# Entry
Amino acid sequence: MAIARFAAATGGSYSDAVAVSGPGRWIHVSGQVGFGPAGTVTGTLYEQTHRCFDHLETALVTAGGALTDTVRITAYLVGLDDYPEFATARAERFGDHPPASAAVGVSQLLFSARVEIDAVAFLPD
# Structure
């Protein structure tokens, strides 16, 4: 199995493309919002983004993978002016293994969240 990541031309914390080859399985993780320990969504977009990634990581570990197996994410942001906070958190979480990524501006999200993130991962056999 091989995952080839093609760096973003802009130098962003995402890959322009991610190519996957070889035997394995795909994991599609539902959109996650930044629920905290109290079961509510609070905090800055940066804090909520990290909690979203925590929840994505938990789902992937449960499926036998890791956050570094993520090949694509879509982030839904209530305020696109907050994109830099999202991008900073994404770079911190993915480091040298950035997924392909899209950010979409939306008018609102469930639970008054400011960000929701879904993911696609590839787990090698």
